[in-house]
Amino acid sequence: MTELISPRRDLPRGAVLGADDLVEAAGHPVGGGLVEPDYDPRLTNEDLAPLKKQSWGSYNIFAFWMSDVHSVGGYVTAGSLFALGLASWQVLVALLAGITIVYFFCNLVAKPSQVTGVPYPVICRSVFGVLGANIPAIIRGLIAVAWYGIQTFLASAALDVVLIKLFPSLAPYAVVEDYGFAGLSALGWGSFLTLWIVQACVFWRGMESIRRFIDFCGPAVYVVMFLLCGYLISQAGWSAIDLNLGSVTYTGLDAIPVMLGAIALVVSYFSGPMLNFGDFSRYGKSFAAVKKGNLLGLPVNFLVFSLLVVITASLTLPVYGELITDPVETVARIDSTFAIVLGALTFTVATIGINIVANFISPAFDFSNVSPQRISWRAGGMIAAVGSVLITPWNLYNNPDVIHYTLETLGAFIGPLFGILIADYYLVRRQKVIVDDLFTMSERGAYWYRKGYNPAAVIATVVGAAVAVIPVLVKSAPGMHTAAQYSWFIGCGLGLAVYYVLATRTALAVRVGDGSAEPVSVG
Predict the structure, then answer these.
(1) Where are the beta strands (DSSP E) in 376-504?
(2) What is the pLDDT of residue 396?
(3) CA 482 → CA 77, 275, 479, distances in Å?
(4) CA-CA-CA-CA torsion sign (206, 360, 59, 341)
(5) Separation between Cα atoms, residue 152 and residue 465, nearest integer Å
(6) d(CA 342, CA 278)
(7) What tens digit of pLDDT does each residue of 421-432 get?
(8) Contacts of 73 (CB under 8 A, 6+ apart)
């Protein structure tokens, strides 16, 4: 059970809130936070304050994960696992194990934000300090900027297919060598900037518009995926389905390291949205609704999607004479302009969906947390959008080796942040949060630590990230290539262990509370 001080000043100190009271007190779309008179403006705006009303049900969380999974990036990542040289059942076991780990960890990180009604960077104030929370916020924000650019690029590639099919005269402008700048073709730039603007417009309309958008995106991709799969089956026949996309080269005990690597890759792929899932769980009606949505959206949904991916990809071999693991390219081979346009546009919309929920909203909150009075939620999102162009994301995700390197590097920095948050909330503070102290600069506040920073959390972050990133940087050294696959787990484990020791057994031990207020139980 989580204990917290009520953010509602109309209730007396020590009052006991029930679940219905919390829903009434806690949050709605962005800008719907309850700003108390004594909240410090240097830490507060309506986007960061505890929500007045929480209205998301299980389906909204389920749709969030569908939007996160059903993208070109998700398709390519799932398909790549079936080409590792494992038998199909081994890959499915690895996929299920990886996504179950993600499900378990998402539930852990969801609870503190759902109960308090505050986003990820604000709940981090209880761990890193009211000023130190900017450290994880900036790290997560910069990572989201990179992913935002990558996903926009993948979606723009699908749009390129549509444009060339409808207007064949544009084909020469898709050649980087003839019409290119900074590694992207002229047509690619046009598609990228078009989708960049579209996403910004959806984001600008606010959280409720985003919720309605993602409620549509995930199911839409399922419709197209089933249609595409049905079309290929009609061309090749049921007997052509083969769940092994490549030759099986690992059997018995030799397959275990490869399976473990596949599990690690799944966790790394979801490590970003998993870390800041509190940005979304804060809108949940109840923690039970969030958990149910996670169950449907992660283990159940991801397994069904992965099966669809491998069946569709395996049928490209008998139909087109080669294995195609990119859904956009598969759609482009169909002899129907309507089918190509429908399929490519659907994958484009789906990728926009994951981009907004996973990589636009996070930096919006993260950058706003740095200077709440100067940077609103919308301004934070636009900072991320501009940064996503400057990093030329097409150079970060242009081949399998670069994909794995990118995931491993990001995992090394995200892992410690996750481990520290979990260690503090569940092991050190025993699920106790003083909400009002998240918004005060008073030195008597529970989260002031040392000048607003918690040295234990900062040290644990540095140690965890530094150790985890070493194998990624020196993959050519003996044993380092294998260790690099587990950068997220290394960082998470080290961050959790180092923080727990520093926070409970050293001179840096944290205060669980200032003793001046009675915590109130929230059902």
Answers:
(1) 432-433
(2) 66
(3) 18, 24, 6
(4) positive
(5) 27
(6) 34
(7) 999 999 999 999
(8) 150, 151, 154, 351, 354, 397
